[in-house]
């Protein structure tokens, strides 16, 4: 299993809510044939803060997190986050997510490509533009 993609928080939420358009859904399904989702520790925290409607939604959320590979805030990511924050006007959570993708050489799957544009070394995929 060669990890290639880091899921932004919005990607995980669209997936959990089954809100992808058909082309994006095909792309995500193809990824899931070979890889489990990879998320940043920031996305894990943001998902745990997500207001779920009911107990079933909460269980689905916990199952999803349990099935993912979570990239923790290790030293290399912290340093790269600081570099990104100094160079770009990016919120700290987004800078950590971008740094995680760069350090692990993963393409970031996000609908919010404008938030991450111009970050050197960051590969972006917008599933809504597939």
Task: Average the pLDDT over all residues and give the rounded result.
Answer: 93
SSE order: EHHEHHEHHEHE
- CATH superfamily annotation: 5'-nuclease
How many extended strands? 5
Helical proportion, percent range? 55-70%
Helix-strand makeup class: mainly alpha
Instruction: Kindly provide the radius of gyration, computed on alpha-carbon positions and rounded to a whole number of angstroms.
Output: 14 Å
What count of helical segments does DSSP give?
7
> What is the correct CATH architecture?
3-Layer(aba) Sandwich
**Name of the top-level CATH class:** Alpha Beta
Question: What form results from the Cα inertia axes?
Answer: globular
| Tally of distinct domains | 1
**CATH fold topology:** Rossmann fold
Low-confidence stretches: none
Strand count, sense and barrel status of the largest sheet are: 3 strands, parallel
Strand adjacency order, main sheet: 1-4-5
Strand-residue fraction? 5-15%
Oligomer: single chain
Report, as a whole number of angstroms, the end-to-end distance. Answer: 23 Å
Polypeptide structure, described:
With 130 residues, the protein is mainly alpha-helical. It has one domain (5-129): 5'-nuclease (Rossmann fold, 3-Layer(aba) Sandwich), CATH 3.40.50.1010. The chain is built from seven helices and five strands. It has helices spanning 9-16, 22-34, 41-49, 55-67, 75-87, 92-103, 113-116; strands spanning 5-7, 38-40, 69-71, 107-109, 123-125. The strands form two sheets. The chain has a three-stranded parallel sheet with strand order 1-4-5. Helix 5 (75-87) crosses helix 6 (92-103). The chain is globular. The two termini are 23 Å apart. The mean pLDDT is 93.
